[in-house]
Amino acid sequence: MKAGSNLLNAVSAVALSASMIVTGASVGTLVSVTSAHAAVVRSVQVHGADRVSADTVKANLSIVPGQNFSNADIDESIRRLFSTGYFSDVRISVSGSTLVVTVSENELINQVVFNGNRKIKDDKLRGMVRSQSLGPYSETSIQADIQTIREAYAAIGRSDATVTTQIHSLGNGRVNLAFVINEGDRTKISQINFVGNQAYSNSRLESVIATKESGLFSFLTRNDIYDERKLQADEEALRQFYFNHGYADFRIVSSQATLDESTNEYAITFTVDEGPRYDFGQMNVESTVEGLDAEELQGLVRSRSGGVYRARDVQRTMSEISQSVAAKGYPFARVTPRGNRDIGSGTIAVDYLVDQGERAYVERIEIRGNTRTRDYVIRREFDIGEGDAFNQEMIARAKRRLDALGFFSAVNISTAPGSEPDRVVIIVDVEDQSTGSFGIGAGYETGKGSGFKFEASIEEKNFLGRGQYIRLAAGTGRDSRDYSLSFTEPYFLGYRLAAGFDIFSNSDDSEDFYTVDTRGFTLRVTAPITENLSTSLRYNYTQFKYKSSDPTRLSSPYVDAVNGSPWVRSSVSHVITYDTTDDRILPREGILANFTQEFAGLGGDSNYYKVSGKARYYHLLMDDADVIGSITAGAGHVVGTSGRLKVFDQFTLGGNDIRGFENGGIGPRATSTGDSLGGTTYFTASAEASFPLPFISRDSGFRGAFFADVGTLYGNDVKTVAADMVDGTDLAWRASVGASIIWASPFGPLRFDYAIPVKKESFDEVQRFKFGIATQF
C-alpha cells in the first residue's frame, strides 16, 4: 500500500507540473518530474509512428519501464528522438502507469536533385550533403546542406554563390528536394599588399606565399582563390621565410582580406613587424644526462658563429642531436635550444640543452580529417608507434615528412593525455588536397629534326589514396614519337624503400639515312641513407632497332646495326643522390648531386662499365631581387669489358649539356658520312644567373637567365673500317654563352634558350635556338 501511494504521488507530481513547449521548426512538450520524486512507469505507448516503427521510437528513449526516471531522462529522450531526424514534433506524457510518446513524422525525401550547377558535379555535391534519397526531410539538415554547398563553391573561388531549395510534394508523406544553385561569378584577388616591410620588397614577399593575384592563367592554376585556411598557411610561410633569413623577432601584426562586393574581388593586406636582423653568436651543447658527453655532440651543430641566423639550422641541429642521443640508448632525452639575444652586436647565441625528459609512452596515434588518404600512408611517416617512448623531435620530423608529401593542404600534430599519467595520445589532423594533374608541353628545336614537339601527361602523386605515384605520358613531333609509363610504391614491403618501374618507347626519324626505335623498361628501388642522401639500384633493359633504306650511306657502326637483328642492352646501375635544395621547383639554396655507375653485360650485346656524375650548387646572389646563381659540373667515362663498345653505348652530349649545339652535335664523328659516334669521356661545366623579368609580375612565373657553358666529349671505342676516318677523338673544348627566358607555366616548366658558340670544331653541329620543357638537372 505504501508503494502504491508513492507511485500515486509521483504520477500526481508529473501531472501537475508545468509543461515546457519548445516552438520553432520542431515542437516538443516535456512533462517535468520533480527532483524530489522519481517516477516509474510500467509500459510505453507510441502514437503517430507510421513509417518509423514503434520499436525504433522506444529504442531512442532513456526511460525504461520498471525503473525510476527523472526530468533529465525526459529531456534526453526527446533530444534523442529529435536527433534521428525522423520527427518534426515529439511529446511525452504519463497516463496512469503508462508513458505515452506522441510523435509527428517528418516527410521522407524521395529524390535529391541539384539544378544550376556546372562547376561542381552532381556526384560530388551529393556526397557532401546530409539530405539523401529515402532519408527524412529535416529543415535543420537542409540549412546545414545549404551552408556546405556555399563553402564548397567558396573553395573554388565563388564566394557569392547562392543556394535555395524547392520542395515538390508527392503525397503520402514523400517529397522531392531540389537545391537550386546560382554559381555567381568567380571571386578574384585584385591585390596583395604588405605593410611594415623594409628588408624585402612586396614582390619578393609575394613569391613566398601561395596565394597570388588574379592573372591571365589563374583559371588554370587556381592560386588566386581566397581561403581563410590558406591565408593562415601564408602567414606561416612568411614567418619561416623571415626566421630563416635572420629575423628571429619577426611577427605578423595582422592579415586582412577585404571583399569589394561591387567587383567581387578581394584585397589582402599583411601588416608585419620585421624586427632586427641577427647573426649566430656562440654555439654550445650542454648535457645534464649522465653518460652523455657534450663535447661529442658539439660536432653535430649545423650553424657556425658569424653566419646568418636561420631557424632551420637550429631545427636540424636539434634533430641530429636527438637522433644521436636516442641511438646511444637515451630514448627519453630531450633537446631544448635556448637563444640569448645580444641587441648591441646583433647576434643570437644558442645553447642546446640535453636533459632527461619525462618518461612517457605513445598510447596511440589518432588520424583525423583524411577523407582520401589512407591512415597507414600517414602513420608510416612516424618513426615511433604505439608503446614506443614519446619523443617530441620525432613528432616534428614526422610533420616535416607529411608536409613534404604534397598530399595535404594542412598538417597539424598535437598531443593529449592518455589513459595513464605516463601515456600520450598523438593526434594528427590533416586536410587532403588534389594531387592529380594533367600537363601539356610544347617545344621547338632547330637543326636536324627541327619542328614543334608536343607532350601530354597525366600524373597522380597519391594514387587511390595509397601514396603511390603514377605517370602516363605521350609525345609527338615531326620526326619522333614517345610513350612512357612510370609507377612508384614509396614503401615497398612496408619498408622505407621506393620501388617502381618505367616503361618507354621512342621512335626517332630525325637522322638523314636511318631511323631508330628504342624501347625498354627499368626496375628500380631507392633507399634513404639520411634525410639528404639516398641510394638507388636499377635494372635496365633496352632494345635498339635501326632501319635504313640505303645502308651504303651509313658509317660502318650503323651498317652493322641496320643489317643485324635488334640490339639489346641489359645492365644494372647504382646511383647515389645528394639533395639539400630548399625547393624542388625553383631552388635558391643547396646542392643537388648524383653519382652513377653502370655495368652492362647481363646478356644482350653491350659489355661495358660506365661511371658518371653531376653536381649543381645554388646560391641566392641578391635576396630581395631574387637573383639566383648556380654552378654545374659533370663528367663521365665508359670502358668496354669484353670487346669494343657499340655505337649507342658511348656518351653523347647536346643542347641540354652545352647549349648552342645540337643533341649529338659535338664529339667523335665519322668523316665519310658525318654520323655522330659519341665518345668515351666527357667533362662539362656551366654557370647561370636567373632573375625575375622586369616590368612583369612575378606571379606570372617568368624569369630570365644568362649562362655560360663549356665542355668536351672525346675518345672512341666503336669499331670502324678503314674507309671510316673519325674526327674529334682528341680532347677539344667547346664553349657557348647565351640568355634564356623561363616560364613556370600551368602546362609545365618551359624554357627558351638562345646560345652563341664561342669555341667549336669545324665538324660540330650548331643549334642556337632551343625551346622546350625546362629541366633543373
Can you give a write-up of this model?
With 777 residues, the chain is of the alpha+beta class. The protein has 6 domains: 2-105, Ubiquitin-like (UB roll) (Roll), CATH 3.10.20.310; 108-182, membrane protein fhac (Ubiquitin-like (UB roll)); 188-273, membrane protein fhac (Ubiquitin-like (UB roll)), CATH 3.10.20; 279-356, Ubiquitin-like (UB roll); 361-420, Ubiquitin-like (UB roll) (Roll), CATH 3.10.20; 436-773, Beta Barrel (Porin), CATH 2.40.160. It is built from 13 helices and 37 strands. Strands 18-19-20-21-22-23-24-25-26-27-28-31-32-34-35-37 form a 16-stranded antiparallel beta barrel. Strands 1-2-4-5-3 form a 5-stranded mixed beta sheet. Residues 1-37 have low confidence and may be disordered.
Give me a quick take on this structure.
The chain is an alpha+beta fold and 777 residues long. The protein contains 13 helices and 37 strands.
Write the layout of secondary structure elements.
Elements: H1 2-16, E1 19-22, E2 27-31, E3 43-47, H2 54-59, H3 71-83, E4 87-95, E5 98-105, E6 108-115, H4 122-128, H5 139-154, E7 162-171, E8 174-182, E9 188-195, H6 202-206, H7 218-221, H8 228-243, E10 251-260, E11 265-273, E12 279-287, H9 294-298, H10 311-327, E13 333-342, E14 347-356, E15 361-368, H11 375-379, H12 392-405, E16 408-417, E17 423-432, E18 436-445, E19 451-463, E20 468-477, E21 480-489, E22 498-508, E23 515-528, E24 533-547, H13 556-563, E25 567-579, E26 590-604, E27 608-622, E28 627-640, E29 660-661, E30 669-670, E31 681-692, E32 702-714, E33 726-727, E34 734-745, E35 748-759, E36 766-767, E37 769-773
Parallel strand pairs: 2-4, 3-5, 6-8, 9-11, 12-14, 15-17
Antiparallel strand pairs: 1-2, 4-5, 7-8, 10-11, 13-14, 16-17, 18-19, 18-37, 19-20, 20-21, 21-22, 22-23, 23-24, 24-25, 25-26, 26-27, 27-28, 28-31, 29-36, 30-33, 31-32, 32-34, 34-35, 35-37
